[in-house]
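Sequence only, no structure available. Ideas?
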Amino acid sequence: MTKKVSKLKIIPLGGLEQIGMNITAFEYNDNIIVVDCGIAFPEDEMLGIDLVIPDVTYLKDNVDKVKGIVLTHGHEDHIGALPYVLRDVNVPVYGTKLTLGLVENKLREHNLLKSVKRKCITPGQTITLGSFKVEFIRTNHSIADAVALAITTPAGVVIHSGDFKVDYTPIHGEPINLQRFAELGRKGVLLFMADSTNVERKGYTMSESTVGESLDDIFLDSEGKRIIVATFASNVDRVQQIVWAAQHFNRKVVVEGRSMVNVVKTAMELGYLKMPENTMIGVEEINRYKDGQLVIITTGSQGEAMAALSRMASSNHRKIEIKAGDRIIFSSKPIPGNEKTVSRVIDDLYRKGAEVICEDTHVSGHAMQEELKLLHTLVKPKYFIPVHGEYRHLKKHAELACKMGMKEDDVFILTSGDVLELDKSGGQITGRVPAEQILVDGLGVGDVGNIVLRDRQKLSQDGLLIVVVTLQKQTGQILCGPDIISRGFVYVRESEDLMLEARNVVKNALEQCHKKRITDWSKIKGVVRDALRDYLWAKTKRSPMILPIIMEV
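Reply:
I predicted one. Tokens follow.
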């Protein structure tokens, strides 16, 4: 009797229908491996939230099966959730040198460095994790040491592209290993999972090295002026080109912004960033040099309120003040949703007399249509899952795969939490696992949910009224109050008539409760709340949160 072959389960826990929070579980029998473990940044309506991390309930419930977490590269949306996930799912972490260097910074902050096993991998190496063999394939991206993964399973080979582009002249390391993709494609690939970020854009993504030429032109044209460059902290290759331009034009380099300082320090220690001797100076040394001798590399390219450039623009930075004549280079594109905050920072910079340059100083780290077509042609998969993108990106990538000759039935657009079971005879979604967004607020992980967010939105929109009243315990008569305290609803001194009438409304409601012999506190609070809400809506067309507080004497 032949043994029945199990199917491979692909379970995305995040990273679909959004840019960020990438994490996918691959399961075969009693073995699970996890690819990436990233965060997403909070949306506008998530008031007070710092980070969004994936729901790993499924991994916690099956922790004995999890053999390890494999990382494709060191961006936050691929490694940022590790400190939170490893507390509950403490398994070995595998990644390339720079990726693990950035991970170790995070683990150190969370006091997990000693308790988490880490294994450094080089591109071309293969590791065995239970019934999986994982090969690391060199790719190019906007951070060095990015890899794709070829995962050999008993059901067939899965290729996960990670975030990639095809760069024939990368700043660090070698070009993408297209030959290995072709070899795997010839042998037969069961499933291809590929980056969809730039699928809407035609043509090829420009090489990172082209940015260097633009920077040289700007530096040449900026004689006697201070240059400030804002970029992503993790874009080490971009930082390297700024450093080279600074060296060429005899400028000192100042690195500003916490995440930028951390990444630059790690990249220099690991040999991914070459800083010529006597080029880098501390921010406290700026006043020793003329403007034309300085270049400041900073965080804040996305207009983040607490990032260094935003603080400079709003005159809140302790050591750097923007002045007339400064040339500010935004060496990035706004992430969708950040356009308004970036525009606000640019306006503030112009008000201070600075010149802002955004053109030709950034190239994407993600493949466009022609590069995606190239990889599809080389890999020739039986099945395809588009990943890393909002729904429209996934849909477009699915259409592109069909134009490349794939059948519609062999292309799967998944949502986070879907369980896709796959083998050579076919694939289907067989169930779902928990895949909610877990919100991180300060030290609290998951303690803020939809109800708390709804309250915060309510408070932010209409404010709060607190009604304080003291009742006699035996008779229920009003002894003191009612007093009404307004926070974020109206300015009391300018709305005395409204507040006086509101007090009378509350008083009447309490007297009605007394007449009807209602003594239950929750019922009294409900009557007060309803009466005051109806009155305020009629008078102001606003609906603040109303919090009655009753004290008995």
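The chain is about 30% helix and 25% strand.
Hope that gets you unstuck.
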